[in-house]
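so im writing up the methods section and need the WD40-repeat-containing domain protein record in one place, dumping it here so i stop losing it
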Amino acid sequence: MVYGNINYLPSALKILIGTPLKRTEHKQKTETEIKLLRTVPIDLRDESNKLTHNLKGHTRSISSLCFSPDGTKLSTASSDGTIIIWSIHLGPTDSYPIHIECVTNFLAHRSAGINDLSWSPDSNYLVSASDDHSVRIFSTSNLRSTPSTTQVDSKNQSGDGQAESQRLRYRELIGHSNCVYCLKFNPIGTVLISGSFDETIKVWDFIGGKLLRTLPGHSEVVSCLDFSRDGSVIVSGSFDGLIRLWDATSGQCLKTLVISKDTNSPVTFVSFTPNSNHLITCSLDSIVRLWDFKTREGTVVKSFTGHSHKKYSIPARVLLLNFESLMPNEIKRIAESREDRRGEEVLITGSEDGTVWVWHLQTRQSILKFKSHQDFLIGLCVHPKNSRIIVTIGGVDKDSSINVFDLYQKQ
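--- predicted struct ---
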């Protein structure tokens, strides 16, 4: 996706500021390799990693990736409108290798790129947001765990073209007047929200497929969305530099936060922390912010800097890690001194220089920094059941790839 003064959004580049790509450049075919790596625990001076797999599937720039909530599938999407679903098998202990294979590869949007993917909480549905202004819902509950090329049937189509392959049926949600950019389910899977270049948020009844309401609260593209843990509050971020909190039932705007009164930097990522007591935001001023959003105007309680976020939308995640399996040694002592041994809260994000950063959330100390890609790093996700597994999207030109890292792996 390319941003600037543009009307057309190519999904090959996710939030790149500058002149929009010409369609001839957008369609240039480049072989995309999906590399699956496993890294040893490393500190700020050690950037070693171990290549374990090299898979091929997408033929153009990868625009989105996400794990299913049950952790058994990884979905990746491309600017050519294709989706690949990979099966993920983790061993019974951390010492077992990760096994991954392609379950299906299908054309989800025939004439447009895909900007975002989201799994339903029960992992039975995969939803895509596309440049063609549509949201499509694919049923994956009947997928076999064997490689295939999948046919896609709409419930409104005749289903012609029989093939000896798996089929995915889909239904379509129509309502946006411009490219759909981001998606999010509520925690129980009854409501789906979508953000668009039309500057609105659509709230959908997922089960019935009906539009419940439209939230017209931004003056630029709605770039990111999330639900609170109980599903009662929606948060949205936009390139207008605003973060808005909404009542999920009534649609009333509860509060507006300004990312920076000095720069009004575009917001590229927003998420509630796991307990929903704080917000995490990323913006194109290269600052990750931890917010106390319950104060009158919202208060930034911590800021994390050092990485580079100036062109791409790179998310950040707060998660628990067992520090006894990480380096350096002083961090091990922090974990060992605690009575609660379930883990420490860390913040993880990527940088446009191709590195992944891990911070201790409370002390803001950099714990890990390792090289993920030679070119830009433009996306990141964490395994929902085992937070040691991190997946990153590589740059769009020299290193268009997806890498998987295991933070606990020993050489």
